[in-house]
């Protein structure tokens, strides 16, 4: 088995030798592809020219997916000069998502048992399907533990815009969680002076002018990102707040303009729909507006209720309650009613009537039932009629010469002068 004489280092995998030429290099790209520059040999067979690797090996190299169950590590050369390292996990080939750049002095071990030789620094554990690194003499899964954070250095000058670089064997770089969306760029700045920013749309900010102009994209800033009280009246354009933007019940009385004077209502005086106007009011009208009921309003006005009635007696007519207009009249013609008996007591219905006494009759004038000021007229058709007082009644003015009527054709009026008093006037004897 012959090898080149300018070998740089040997990587041992369970007794299998991997020879790396001195002038060769390995480039790990951000998409996990591996570029081999130069010639590499595995067990004496050149890798990139399709050397012969027996099926008994646990490592396969080539463009065709190995089917041998014993192969657990495959260097896929489908892309020609590019290669991709894959590990068999649960029967399927998985690409190494976190490739590492190994210097010429590093040594890698692949297998199921812990390699105890001190020269191994990287171990592909095919039992747990993990990649381990030796840290402080112990194997630690990638990513390893993070050391204490050192003191922050001075901020360096801003570096020139960086470019995507290949990672060359010998550079002391470890690449974790490689993602095409986050390219690896170089930086010439020191401390915090990171690499330059490429022009383009960064999602919410667009960069131009070789990183000198930063413009926030439209529709990016939310209301939560605006500081409290940051927007003043000068930032609000005239007529920019429309009615639809004012929430219901949001405008308070204090926000409405002042009325011009006392006793003004808001409404409209001008005919038709239009702008709100002031309607003149008075204190008297306001005294009614705050009344809780019509009863209270009548009290404020001093008005009677509709149930109050106007009472009328003869000769007046037309009385009644106030639910309708009432016309009060006076009946000038007296109603003549005959009295046929020898005795008769005046009643309320006799007021302003002419009672015709058919025979000699004794007429009783009662104490009550007859309103004060009422009058009843009597005419006699026969001799012998006279007047007497009922219980409790008195003569306000005693009849003269007596309370007896003259003969046929005599007329006498009985007038109620007080609550109990009467007078007689007419043809008395």
Task: Describe what is shown at a glance.
The chain is mainly beta and 429 residues long. It has helices at residues 283-289, 294-301, and strands at residues 7-13, 16-21, 25-28, 34-37, 41-42, 45-46, 59-62, 73-76, 82-89, 92-95, 108-111, 122-125, 130-135, 138-141, 200-201, 205-208, 213-216, 264-267, 277-280, 309-310, 316-317, 320-321, 329-330, 336-339, 343-345, 354-357, 362-365, 375-380, 386-389, 394-395, 411-416, 421-426. It is rod-shaped, with a radius of gyration of 64 Å.
Explain what you see.
By secondary structure, the chain is mainly beta. Helices cover 3% and strands 30% of the residues. It is built from 2 helices and 32 strands. β5 (41-42) and β6 form a beta hairpin. It is rod-shaped, with a radius of gyration of 64 Å. Mean pLDDT is 74; it is low at 1-16, 25-37, 48-57, 97-106, 162-173 and 184-194.
**How large a portion of the residues is in β-strands, by DSSP E?**
25-35%
Q: How many strands in all?
A: 32
Count the DSSP helices: 2
- Mind telling me the C-alpha Rg? 64 Å
Mean pLDDT, all residues = 74
Helix/sheet category: mainly beta
The helix fraction, in percent, is under 10%
Form type? rod-shaped
Question: Uncertain runs with pLDDT below 50, 5 residues or more?
Answer: 1-16, 25-37, 48-57, 97-106, 162-173, 184-194
Biggest sheet, in brief?
6 strands, mixed
End-to-end Cα distance, whole Å, is: 184 Å
């Amino acid at each position: 088995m012959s090898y080149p004489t300018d070998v740089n280092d040997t990587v041992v995998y369970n007794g299998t030798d991997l020879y790396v030429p001195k002038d060769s290099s390995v480039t790990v790209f951000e998409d996990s592809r591996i570029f081999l520059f130069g010639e590499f040999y595995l067990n004496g067979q050149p890798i990139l020219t399709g050397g012969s690797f027996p099926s008994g090996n646990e490592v396969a190299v080539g463009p065709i997916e190995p089917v041998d169950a014993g192969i657990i590590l495959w260097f896929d050369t489908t892309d020609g000069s590019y290669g991709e390292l894959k590990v068999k996990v649960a029967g399927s080939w998985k690409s190494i998502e976190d490739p590492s750049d190994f210097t010429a002095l590093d040594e890698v071990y692949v297998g199921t048992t812990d390699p105890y030789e001190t020269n191994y620094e990287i171990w592909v554990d095919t039992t747990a399907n993990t990649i381990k690194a030796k840290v402080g003499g112990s194997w630690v899964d990638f990513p390893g533990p993070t050391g204490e954070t050192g003191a922050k250095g001075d901020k360096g000058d801003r570096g020139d815009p960086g470019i995507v670089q290949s990672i060359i064997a010998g550079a002391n770089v470890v690449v974790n969680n490689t993602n095409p969306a986050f390219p690896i760029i170089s930086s010439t700045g020191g401390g915090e002076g990171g690499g330059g920013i490429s022009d383009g749309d960064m999602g919410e900010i667009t960069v131009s002018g070789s990183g000198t102009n930063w413009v926030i994209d439209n529709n990016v800033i939310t209301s939560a990102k605006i500081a409290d009280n940051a927007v003043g009246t000068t930032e609000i354009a005239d007529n920019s707040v429309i009615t639809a933007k004012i929430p219901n019940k949001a405008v308070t009385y204090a926000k409405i303009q002042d009325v011009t004077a006392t006793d003004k209502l808001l409404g409209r005086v001008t005919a038709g729909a239009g702008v709100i106007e002031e309607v003149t009011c008075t204190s008297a009208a306001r005294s009614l507006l705050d009344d809780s009921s019509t009863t209270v309003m009548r009290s404020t006005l001093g008005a009677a209720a509709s149930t109050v009635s106007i009472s009328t007696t003869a000769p007046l007519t037309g009385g009644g309650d106030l639910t309708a207009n009432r016309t009060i009249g006076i009946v000038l013609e007296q109603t003549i009613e005959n009295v046929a008996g020898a005795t008769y007591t005046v009643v309320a219905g006799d007021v302003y009537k002419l009672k015709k006494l058919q025979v000699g009759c004794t007429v009783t004038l009662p104490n009550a039932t007859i309103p004060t000021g009422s009058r009843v007229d009597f005419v006699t058709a026969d001799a012998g009629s006279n007047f007497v007082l009922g219980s409790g009644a008195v003569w306000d003015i005693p009849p003269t010469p007596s309370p007896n009527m003259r003969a046929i054709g005599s007329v006498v009026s009985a007038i109620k002068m007080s609550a109990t008093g009467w007078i007689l006037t007419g043809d008395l004897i």
